[in-house]
Amino acid sequence: RWKPSTLESSVPYAAPFTGFQQDNEASMVPDFSVRPKLSEKIYKDMEEFNDKYRLHRFCPHGTGGSNGWAIQSQLTKRGFPLVATDPHLDLQAPPIMYQIHLNLEGPGVEPLNLSGCTIPGFLGLAIGHNDHVAWALTNGQLDVQDTYVEQIVKGANGEPFAVKFKGQEVPIQYRQEDIKVKDGTSSYIVTDYVMVVPHHGPIISYDPDNNIALSWRNSCYGRPTHEFRAFNAISRAKSTTEIFDALKYNVACGQGFVAADMNNNVLYYCKYDIPLRNPRGLTVNFPPYLPYPG
After folding, report:
1. Cystine design at 211: which of 136, 152, 189, 243 (Cβ 3.0–4.6 Å)?
2. Per-residue pLDDT tens for 67-112?
């Protein structure tokens, strides 16, 4: 369930909510006594981002939510476990997902027979089955990112130099990103510079007239994640237990997984990392969907 946590659970026998975990880094906790103010430019940037999000083919507007089912054999007509899913994605050309049948065999190769749907650029199957297990996934709908309103301190050259944080000036890091672009038979490199607030994340909107900016951070920012390793193990799983174990590598892919195996075991597991937010933010009416003070 993605609503605010309660002692009750919508899944029988699931682990109950045991309370908030205090933030171990006290120095990183925002000053909730300060109400951040957004400028008109920051508002417009946020609205523009929201409009692009709604028009993006991976985020179709008005299609509702996905669903997934894993049913044991005693509840199905043919007496076999059943996995079904409805990703709620629009029909588009080219499509977001496409069907694939992958069969691996040969000397020194572990036989593998996969059938299902995948995404361009994805290694393996997102939804499908092998000879032992079937699995599906739907969006977990959990809030895994935060934005922060930063107070900018300009340097001698007039460019952002630092942000104010707990009465101190924390220097902004400038990260160079070289993007290779191919145009016909030639190629070239586009160089961009990203401003990063060390204790929060990259700046996604900057208002030089009012010296404020909006930085962004999610639960997997600043560390490597291993989602491909998780799905590679799922593709080779022989039981729901092995799928459960494989999902320990899933950090950034916010999905609820359902699965069933040939031994009539079923699985539901919503697995990915969620920020450990300090509860003081909620007690002073600072829900995580609002920008935090920097």
Report:
1. 152
2. 888 999 999 888 889 999 888 777 777 888 899 999 988 888 888 9
In order of 49, 187, 244, 278, 281, the CA distances from 22 in angstroms are 32, 50, 28, 6, 12
> In sequence order, what are the residues at sequence separation of 6 or more whose Cβ sits closer than 8 angstroms to the Cβ of residue 18?
none
Write the CA distances from 107 to 102, 104, 110, 111, 114, integer angstroms. Answer: 17, 10, 8, 10, 19
Residues near 10 by beta carbon (within 8 Å), at least 6 away in sequence: 1
Residue 135 structure tokens: 């699995």
CA distance 238 to 116: 16
Helix, strand or coil, per DSSP, at residue 231:
helix
| Alpha-carbon distances, residue 16 vs 3, 8, 227, 264, 288 (angstroms) | 14, 7, 26, 26, 22
Q: Give strand pairing partners of 218.
A: 145
